[in-house]
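Consider one such protein record:
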Amino acid sequence: MKQEADLIRARLKTPRAAAIAGILFSVLLIAGFLLFRLSVRADPLEAGAWLKTSANTIALGLNLVPFAGIAFLWFIGVLRDRLGELEDRFFATVFLGSGLLFLAMLFASAAVGGGIILAYAAKPAELLASPTFTFARATTYEIMNLYAVKMAAVFMISTSTLAIRTGFFARWIAFLGYAFALFLLLSGRYIEWILMLFPMWVLLISNSKSHAIHCSHAFICGAGPDYCVSNAFGCEGRRGGGQRSGQSDVRLSGGAKGHFIRLRYQS
């Protein structure tokens, strides 16, 4: 019984990690986008006036990107761990690949933007008059607003599909992910705030994971007459019939058809 309780507690740590990582990623990326978008116009051929007035603000936003990326990488790993053996190989490959590509493009765009700021600090007049600045500014804009946006959409589609098949977060969040992803795929590069949809959607997933944690703890700690087990799909599993000890089959919640676990309990 002690080994099983230790296993349940270990599994509880995973949704907590998913919630924390997702919230950190969302908050940091939204803060970085706000700092950037409020300072730089959505124009790849903009003349660079922001370098004279808002370079420090942009630098602060860019410094948040690595930490957001680390949190996102942790978020991906935790979600894969929660899927476990129910992970669909095709969609899981697309899920992982699109997430890593989005992260790589986010870092590449931030790195080029940081390089522009460093070059301006060294030779301000020469940089703004050179074709190098135009190329670097346009490259940063294209990577972030075209390619990274599309990879974020693919990540949302694959994650939502896995969620509907396994139920590891709410179905309405998955359908909302489809809608957001379609908007990202079909949108043009000149919609300034379009990428904000992605961290907001991740924040919704994180909040749903946090709710599952509270449910699990309430029953694990003996707060109720029934026994609730935390699994990859949320909280479900009850002792019935007034029995004091023994074991029962518990169906996994969230629509994962045909999947059962054997739960041992003891008063």
Observations:
- The CA atoms of residues 111 and 139 lie 11 Å apart.
- Residues 1-12, 211-267 have pLDDT under 50 and may be disordered.
